[in-house]
TrEMBL record:
The gene is yfhL. Pfam families: Fer4_7 (PF12838). It comes from the Bacteria. The keyword Transcription does not apply. The keyword Metal-binding applies. Keywords: 4Fe-4S, Electron transport, Iron, Iron-sulfur, Metal-binding, Repeat, Transport. Signal peptide: none annotated. This is 4Fe-4S dicluster domain-containing protein. One of its GO terms (molecular function) is metal ion binding.
Amino acid sequence: MALLIKKSCINCDMCEPECPNQAISMGVDIYEIDPDLCTECIGHYEQPTCMKVCPIDNTIIHDPAHQESNEQLWDKFVLLHHSDKL
């Protein structure tokens, strides 16, 4: 599933540059994660880097509205980064 940034975000700017899929951007009030681009860092890292660098516990969570299996996240990674080779 994609990740979600909760309203407890303090806009510290730590997560956005760490996202290998460029899925994080500034929203109206806080940073937001585009579920169409988020692969939870599958294909890049062992764990989501945004969660790792966020200084506020439980601010970045799994988005219950965008549930995806690891296989679906891998497929998304391939489409995002290797679609020219398909």
